């Protein structure tokens, strides 16, 4: 969307792939590594990676308070995989999170045999089937506080509550643009 500058939290994880995908969609995107960087963007993607490490780095760079403040003030955020864990209100193994989206997640919950896999995911609202790459993904075990946008194998994999979107898979690793386009154009565009 013209005029929306999307930040990608670039402390750890696969932020480079998100930046590349946003660029290939023609969107304005910036790596975010500090409070100053965060002040300069309209919305944020929190990438996949390791949620515990990412939260430690958020604290090391003193970003947590300002990040939560901006989220509470309505900044749109898309959290993918570890990013979805960071947004959740509660993580079932007791791990801390930013606690801003009313979902409960269980980390690494697809089991050892299925740590990484690809799946075709129907997204009725977008009227399409998209390819999802799951890597040691969390399962959203309670999404009662959010709107479920897509499910796979009976569990929500893409949910939204107002300005916040949690996605348990990695569209950016499959070159799948539609989740990012929906986020930038619909969620950041103020729809819903
Ligand atoms: N298992 C990771 C975590 O708990 C998430 C994996 C990912 O982001 N691909 O943070």
CATH class: Alpha Beta
Distance between the termini: 16 Å
CATH H-level superfamily? Class I glutamine amidotransferase (GATase) domain
Rg calc: 15 Å
Strand content: 25-35%
Which spans have pLDDT < 50 for at least 5 consecutive residues?
A: none
Shape: globular
Bound ions, cofactors and other small molecules, one mention each: glutamine
In percent, how helical is the residue content? Answer: 25-40%
What is the domain tally?
1
Main-sheet strand order equals 2-1-3-4-12-11-10
Question: How many helical stretches?
Answer: 6
- CATH fold category name: Rossmann fold
What would you note in describing this structure?
- The chain is globular.
- The protein is an alpha/beta fold and about 190 residues long.
- The two termini are about 15 Å apart.
- It has a single domain, classed as Rossmann fold (3-Layer(aba) Sandwich), CATH 3.40.50.
- It has six helices and twelve strands.
- A seven-stranded mixed sheet has the order 2-1-3-4-12-11-10.
- The model has no long low-confidence stretch (mean pLDDT about 95).
- The chain binds glutamine.
- The site of glutamine (GLN) has 11 residues, from helix 5.
């Amino acid at each position: 969307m013209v005029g929306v500058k999307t930040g990608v939290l670039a402390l750890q994880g696969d932020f480079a792939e998100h930046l590349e995908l946003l660029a290939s969609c023609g969107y304005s995107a910036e790596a975010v590594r500090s409070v100053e960087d965060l002040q300069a963007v309209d919305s944020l993607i929190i990438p996949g990676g390791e949620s515990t490490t990412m939260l430690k780095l958020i604290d090391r760079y003193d970003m947590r308070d300002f990040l939560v403040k901006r989220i509470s003030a309505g900044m749109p955020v898309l959290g993918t995989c570890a990013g979805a864990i960071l947004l959740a209100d509660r993580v079932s193994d007791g791990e801390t999170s930013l606690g801003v989206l009313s979902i409960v997640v269980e980390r690494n919950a697809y089991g050892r045999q299925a740590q990484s896999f690809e799946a075709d995911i129907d997204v009725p609202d977008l009227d399409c089937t998209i390819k999802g790459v799951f890597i040691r993904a969390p399962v959203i075990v309670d999404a009662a506080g959010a709107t479920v946008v897509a499910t796979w194998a009976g569990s929500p994999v893409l949910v939204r509550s107002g300005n916040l979107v949690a996605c348990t898979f990695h569209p950016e690793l499959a070159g799948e643009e539609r989740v990012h386009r929906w986020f930038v154009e619909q969620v950041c565009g103020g729809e819903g």
